């Protein structure tokens, strides 16, 4: 099968990082300018769409993908419920990957957090008092970031709650400093603490994930996937290909 043409919606920082890396890796790219929707249906379509724009644009992106049957990698954060519902409806016909954080480090951070949560909840069920620590999430982005908290911070908090049944004590935001982001989960017991942190210095981290996930989405069945489900699937395929036991989730 020929390499898919990657459609990128956006002209900002993330779009530039995805487009720059895609071209450096030899992918064909079509840019969909978010303020020129009337041009989107002109010329040959892409094979998959990577939305790097803004919540105001997501409905039009979903319309395009629905009409042309194109898989969608949705990278925009802080989507309102109405947009998320629109994407769920779209997923009946095409693969839709919800990808609020595309970096490998966030995937590993989330898996590490889940692993810790599973151990301490097992200890708590066995009757060990105080096994489950108090959690807190702190995210930092530059002052230019549009909303707070980041969707990534909300997802880390939700993962902790899902695994332990306890909400983090706080999900806090800091707006200062350089690109791109820091996400820190602090776990505190009275006598000790554990910090699971992830620092991103370049949007190339997200761009690499976006290109891999978009390529995965082409040819996959319609449905709604999280980016971490896609990474799980990729890791399982690598484990099979290298003859190792499949990754346990
Ligand atoms: N999934 C991930 O790993 C990552 C996700 N993100 C998320 O991706 C999104 C984009 O981030 P970033 O590239 O830094 O943002 P930028 O502000 O640099 O770019 C946003 C893009 O959307 C366009 N846009 C914004 N508002 C509108 C509007 N109302 N109508 C039409 N077009 C609009 C902008 O056009 P114009 O310049 O003309 O305003 C620009 O092309 C954010 O939601 C961010 O949180 C960011 C990094 C990583
Ligand atoms: O705006 C950003 O830069 C980022 N936004 C995403 C989020 O809100 O979770 C992911 C990452 O933090 C970069």
UniProtKB/TrEMBL annotation:
<feature type="domain" description="Dihydrodipicolinate reductase N-terminal">
    <location>
        <begin position="43"/>
        <end position="101"/>
    </location>
</feature>
<dbReference type="InterPro" id="IPR036291">
    <property type="entry name" value="NAD(P)-bd_dom_sf"/>
</dbReference>
<keyword id="KW-0028">Amino-acid biosynthesis</keyword>
<keyword id="KW-0457">Lysine biosynthesis</keyword>
<comment type="pathway">
    <text>Amino-acid biosynthesis; L-lysine biosynthesis via DAP pathway; (S)-tetrahydrodipicolinate from L-aspartate: step 4/4.</text>
</comment>
<comment type="similarity">
    <text>Belongs to the DapB family.</text>
</comment>
<protein>
    <recommendedName>
        <fullName>4-hydroxy-tetrahydrodipicolinate reductase</fullName>
        <ecNumber>1.17.1.8</ecNumber>
    </recommendedName>
</protein>
<dbReference type="InterPro" id="IPR000846">
    <property type="entry name" value="DapB_N"/>
</dbReference>
<keyword id="KW-0220">Diaminopimelate biosynthesis</keyword>
<feature type="domain" description="Dihydrodipicolinate reductase C-terminal">
    <location>
        <begin position="119"/>
        <end position="230"/>
    </location>
</feature>
<keyword id="KW-0520">NAD</keyword>
<dbReference type="InterPro" id="IPR023940">
    <property type="entry name" value="DHDPR_bac"/>
</dbReference>
<dbReference type="InterPro" id="IPR022663">
    <property type="entry name" value="DapB_C"/>
</dbReference>
<dbReference type="Pfam" id="PF01113">
    <property type="entry name" value="DapB_N"/>
</dbReference>
<keyword id="KW-0521">NADP</keyword>
<keyword id="KW-0560">Oxidoreductase</keyword>
<dbReference type="Pfam" id="PF05173">
    <property type="entry name" value="DapB_C"/>
</dbReference>
């Amino acid at each position: 099968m020929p390499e898919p043409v990657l459609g990128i919606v956006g002209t900002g920082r993330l779009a530039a990082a995805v487009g720059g890396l895609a071209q450096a890796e030899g992918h064909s790219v079509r840019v969909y300018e978010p303020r020129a929707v009337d041009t989107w249906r002109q010329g040959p379509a892409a094979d998959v769409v990577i939305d790097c724009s803004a919540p105001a644009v997501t409905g039009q992106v979903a319309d395009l993908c629905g009409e042309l049957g194109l898989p969608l990698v949705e990278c925009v954060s802080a989507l309102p419920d109405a947009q998320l519902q629109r994407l769920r409806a779209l997923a009946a016909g095409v693969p839709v990957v919800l990808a609020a954080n595309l970096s490998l480090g966030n995937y590993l951070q989330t898996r590490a957090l889940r692993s810790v949560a599973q151990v301490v909840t097992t200890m708590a069920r066995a009757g060990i008092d105080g096994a489950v620590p108090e959690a807190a999430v702190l995210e930092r982005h530059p002052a230019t970031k549009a909303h707070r908290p980041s969707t990534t911070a909300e997802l880390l908090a939700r993962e902790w709650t899902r695994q332990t049944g306890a909400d983090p004590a706080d999900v806090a935001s800091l707006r200062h400093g350089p690109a791109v982001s820091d996400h820190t989960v602090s776990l505190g017991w009275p006598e000790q603490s554990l910090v699971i942190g992830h620092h991103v210095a370049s949007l190339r981290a997200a761009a690499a994930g976006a290109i891999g996930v978009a390529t995965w989405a082409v040819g996959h069945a319609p449905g709604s996937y999280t980016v971490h489900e896609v990474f799980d699937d990729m890791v399982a395929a690598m484990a099979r290909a290298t003859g190792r036991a499949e990754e346990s989730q």
